[in-house]
Automatic annotation (TrEMBL):
Belongs to the LysR transcriptional regulatory family. InterPro entries: LysR_HTH_N, LysR_subst-bd, WH-like_DNA-bd_sf, WH_DNA-bd_sf. Keywords: DNA-binding, Transcription, Transcription regulation. The keyword Iron-sulfur does not apply. It comes from the Bacteria. The keyword Chloroplast does not apply. PROSITE patterns: HTH_LYSR. Coiled coil: none annotated. This is HTH lysR-type domain-containing protein. It comes from Acinetobacter ursingii ANC 3649.
Amino acid sequence: MNINQEQLTIFKTVMETGSFSAAARKLNKVPSAVSMSIANLEIDLNLNLFERLGREPVATSEAHVLYEKTNQLLIEMNQWKQQAYALSTGLESVLNIVIASELLDTNWTDYVSLVSKQFPDLQINITSAPQEDALAMLLDQRAQLAWMFEREHLDYREQFVEIKKESLIPVVSKTHPLANMQHIQFEDLLNQRQIVVASRDNTIKPELLFSKNYWRTDNHHSAYMLIVRNLGWGVLPSEMFQENPRLKQQLKVLDLLDFTPKFEYYIDLVWSRESKLGSAARYLIEHIRRDRK
């Protein structure tokens, strides 16, 4: 059996127009070519698709059953061809993006939607991980792109483009002892347990660590749950408060005397110089670069 896309298109058109001649006109073919194609299709399938007793062919019950599948099959064949063409021109077979768990509340989904619209058949995998782990996934090429905070020290393999600023805010439960203090000195923080978002690798020292006593977690959502239960103070992204207004009722922003109560960072889209990026990754990078101009 050797059925091609042209045969299926002709069959579909005959079913929809009701005659070989009308199908020929619609497809810009001679009627004999349409009739021959249908005859060859019947031979390949070993089925009688049309009764030719009167002036116009009449579709058999078998033809009606196959017609229901033809539209979807033609769509899939076109998608297959488009995907093959895209791959031949440099589209990656899959785009793996890792989002630093500290940034899950930011608008990264807007950028993923943008890529999806431009490359609708591309498979995109999204993973979240603490900042240090996200960078490790990027550099060992488990991910092509990473959505991360700016880093104090850059790895020589990193390349990035800045997206926007984000603030991290020191907070505590409204029932915590620190919440009753009007002004808080650095020494006050040292003596209170801190809930810190850090790598899953316990050998890596957390960033933004101030207290002598601290608990680790790998994302800000679990950090928030611990903080609101009065188990320590911590630093949360400002966008968490925009996404969940209830946080303002449960948490108090600490008024720190010795340093600013907001930690401002740029959010970067990061990739590895050692990775060969595909069309979708390059498209997103160039889009962000144009937005910055």
